[in-house]
Design brief:
350 residues; alpha+beta; eight-stranded mixed beta sheet; 20% helix; disordered N terminus; binds ligand LWWXVOTR; EC 4.4.1.5; metal-binding; lactoylglutathione lyase activity
């Protein structure tokens, strides 16, 4: 079977070819396109509060003005709002060629749990959510299987997913025993001390297994390569309200990494941006999709992104027929992120 057109590059291609999967049909009792006012009133229902991976309740704000586009009077005001918005990495979305095979690998070899599965026959795809804890408090993977598509191009820009484990050697032995592919044996990372290994899933997505005993968030990194690290850091700090948690140059191996996120690396999943000296562009393939980030207000989020020169490829608003509000953006390298309304997302999980 042929894979669908590439999602690589900036602009319309990425927007059109990597649709955000439809959200839970549990929400579809509210009529598609219902007036925002009615939707806000419907929010009076009690909500299960999200928790972060460390177990602390997340502050979900049932804002009455959430659907109003704000007009920030300055970039400082916009930045301050983005910094105090209630954000967390929710999930990472990517395409796989055989859902059952991937679920088997992730559950048997990587110790994930299958959290939920949904089939959207009218759109000809199925999603499976897997991770190490409930979605209201953990970063998880959202696998997409498009009917009849059994192969994708992972490209050169996507790096890996990171998984923190108690014992790297044990995990690698298990992967090998189950017939999985080990591409880098356990040992200290080149130029550092952390014990790591690399394994590959059935589609060839790389997983870096990192020794990180007792971590509350085992699925801890999404590594993407970027062509200009300072430009990318500035984008994720300003347009996305992330913090630069750590930056490490490894001149012996000619690369620099920057860990970006919404809280300490030990407790939260992070975006690991890698710059390889002299490489300014990568081919992105059509397999990797995007990270999803929770926000209290997708409208304000889109406004902030635009104020800082970011590209909004899906204007903020409810997904037709489902009503979960989202907005999609591209970073300067063309990597996509989707911001999802926290309250709508919590409803999906009810
Ligand atoms: C602990 C944390 O900092 C790491 O594990 S970095 C892992 C390291 N990354 C790179 O080498 C990135 C540059 C590389 N050219 C790329 O684009 O992927 C890594 O993968 N090390 C490999 C090793 O064998 O140690």
């Amino acid at each position: 079977m042929m894979a669908p057109p590439t999602t690589a590059g900036r602009g319309a291609v990425a927007c059109a070819a990597a649709p955000v999967p439809r959200r839970s049909l549990l929400l579809s009792t509210a009529a598609a396109g219902a007036a925002l006012h009615s939707e806000q009133l419907a929010r009076a229902r009690p909500l299960r509060l999200a928790r972060n991976a460390a177990g602390a309740p997340a502050k979900i704000r049932a804002s009455a003005d959430a659907a109003q586009a704000a007009t920030f009077t300055s970039t400082d005001e916009a930045l301050a709002w983005a910094k105090k918005d209630n954000r967390r990495l929710l999930h990472v979305v990517y395409r796989v060629g055989d859902l059952d095979k991937t679920i088997k690998f992730y559950t048997e070899c990587l110790g994930m749990k299958l959290l939920r599965k949904r089939d959207i026959p009218e759109e000809k795809y199925t999603n499976a959510f897997l991770g190490y804890g409930p979605e209201d408090s953990n970063f998880v993977v959202e696998l997409t299987y498009n009917y009849g598509v059994d192969k994708y191009d992972i490209g050169a820009g996507f790096g890996h997913f990171g998984i923190g484990v108690d014992d790297v050697t044990k995990t690698v032995e298990l992967v090998r025993a189950k017939g999985g592919k080990v591409t880098r044996e356990p040992g200290p990372v080149k130029g550092g001390k952390t014990v790591i290994a690399f394994v590959e899933d059935p589609d060839g997505y790389k997983f870096e297994i990192l020794e990180r005993p007792g971590t509350p968030e085992p699925l801890c990194q999404v590594m993407l390569r970027v062509g200009d690290l300072d430009r990318a850091i500035s984008f994720y700090e300003k347009a996305c309200g992330m913090e630069l948690l750590r930056k490490r140059d490894n001149p012996d191996y000619k690369y620099t990494v920057a860990m970006m996120g919404y809280g300490p690396e030990e407790k939260n999943a992070v975006l690991e941006l890698t710059y390889n000296y002299g490489v300014t562009e990568y081919e992105k393939g059509n397999a990797y999709g995007q990270i999803a980030i929770g926000t209290d207000d997708v409208y304000k989020t889109a406004e902030v992104v635009k104020l800082f020169g970011g590209q909004v490829v899906r204007e903020p608003g409810p997904l037709p027929g489902i009503n979960t509000k989202i907005t999609s953006i591209l970073d300067p390298d063309g990597w996509k992120s989707v911001f999802v309304d926290n309250i709508d997302f919590a409803r999906e999980l009810e």
